[in-house]
Amino acid sequence: MKKISVASAPATVANVNAGFDILGFSLPGISDQVRAWVIAEPVVRIKEIVGVDIPSIPAKNTASVALQEMIKGEKLTHGFEIVIEKGIPLASGLGGSAASAVAAVVAGNQLLKKKLSLEKLFFYALKGEEVASGGIHGDNIAPALYGGITACLKTSDGAFQIVPIRCPKKIFCSIFHPAFPLETKKARGILKTEISLKDYIQQSMHLTGLLMGFNLGDYELIYHHAKDIIITPQRKSLLPFYDLFYPALIKAQSLAFGISGAGPSIFILSKNLPAAKKMSALLTSLSHKHKVSGQVFTGQVGAGKPEVTILKVRE
Amino acid sequence: MKKISVASAPATVANVNAGFDILGFSLPGISDQVRAWVIAEPVVRIKEIVGVDIPSIPAKNTASVALQEMIKGEKLTHGFEIVIEKGIPLASGLGGSAASAVAAVVAGNQLLKKKLSLEKLFFYALKGEEVASGGIHGDNIAPALYGGITACLKTSDGAFQIVPIRCPKKIFCSIFHPAFPLETKKARGILKTEISLKDYIQQSMHLTGLLMGFNLGDYELIYHHAKDIIITPQRKSLLPFYDLFYPALIKAQSLAFGISGAGPSIFILSKNLPAAKKMSALLTSLSHKHKVSGQVFTGQVGAGKPEVTILKVRE
Q: Which of A57, A80, B162, B237 has its Cβ near the most Cβ atoms within 10 Å?
């Protein structure tokens, strides 16, 4: 009998407004899946990548790099062969590379005799993510692995800390994913290296209001402070549909909206599912009106989480 | 019978680490007091200022300006005569001007037929504070009026919002107030108008960690994130004792430390009262060792709050 571990990890929205490089949340219904089984040699082999046309070079894939780091870090004497099924669009700003890395470590962990802590899985997934984003950013990995809304922090010594953000009220999300890719590296490259003290203070107020809005389940605080006055104004030029869509979105008075991750997807937050469905319908109609083809998703903020099962098959 | 309203308002620590212009907390045991009674004319007269030698020109005093704004805003047909008793050292970074303004509006409110909301009192006290700090900053007014730990936010339309920060664990504070004044305007004037994106991100992580540390009562988060990498490095040159004291303070491993308000006072946070007393003793010995005369206070973070009573005296 061969044990196959099948794990999925959800899409995530990172860079949530003023929480640049910090705040993220998971989404239900969109995920990447990794199937893994043990092989004798302590290496990772990608058997297949389903759903997209990406190179299956183990050193360049977030899932395989994450598992290679696990093999190295845990001094495993065996390796893994994996099949990656991409459900999250590539370079969409929905945390696809993080989800593959998380699904891989969750799948791999299930095949170990001694299960690893979430902290260790985070660390290995992060090493995988590094390949894709060109930097160490855990704000997609954290919600993909832990579920919910998370703050991913670094101490001054560079250690990561994941802080789950309580949110007593349900919040719903509509996503528009335009059908063109945007590389995180490119979206990062255009950012100015200096910001004004004035903007820093106002953005810190927004960050505080957004965090406290989630913590207290206070829609009013979220509405006023789910803003980003520093990064979005610089990045929106990379999203040619942004200025076409936004007047209609502002008029529709959602709870909040912003660029998901480094873009090009955008997200809209709503107080309840009917409102979110209305916003999703608006996104669909805007996409038709302005001839920007893309996909629309709707789901509860933070409701996505990793899932894993073991299949036993005859060899 | 003449009704005299006697109100006190506590000292406060604002600019708490990464919460520049946002986070503040009140302190017990140090306060300003304002005694007020009604006079026929709709003006404010300062009868006496006790405890310090400051000009009693109503237009330049935070207490009288706050009450004048109340008279104007509420269209009062009467005025107030007041006695201000300063218990908080002047230009100490302990929110003395805010405390006088808060004590004044709390005292005045008690003499009104229709009591005003805390939001309105905040607004009038803030107008008083503006005279002293040369800018609209509510981060001392908010904790002085509401007590506890508060976030004072501004929306993008410039409206203020006070958010009380829950903190399920008690935290204690030691204050060293060196015996020299430092004007807020001066401490503000030296700040650079630009900061790096890198510092903004790290400081935002610290702000998130500090807020979540308070919210969850998580000492570990507070320890790692009660830091300020933007403002303190620029201001510490105004505090000649800073670099003399800090090696010893770091060695003593408190929960956190920083400049209180715009300085020159510094604060230290501890997990319990014995630890705070130890830190206060250390501050006293450092002040002797380095010949920096000053005062030391110890108290529970957020335990200060306004108090008001009405005296009835024969005219």
A: A80
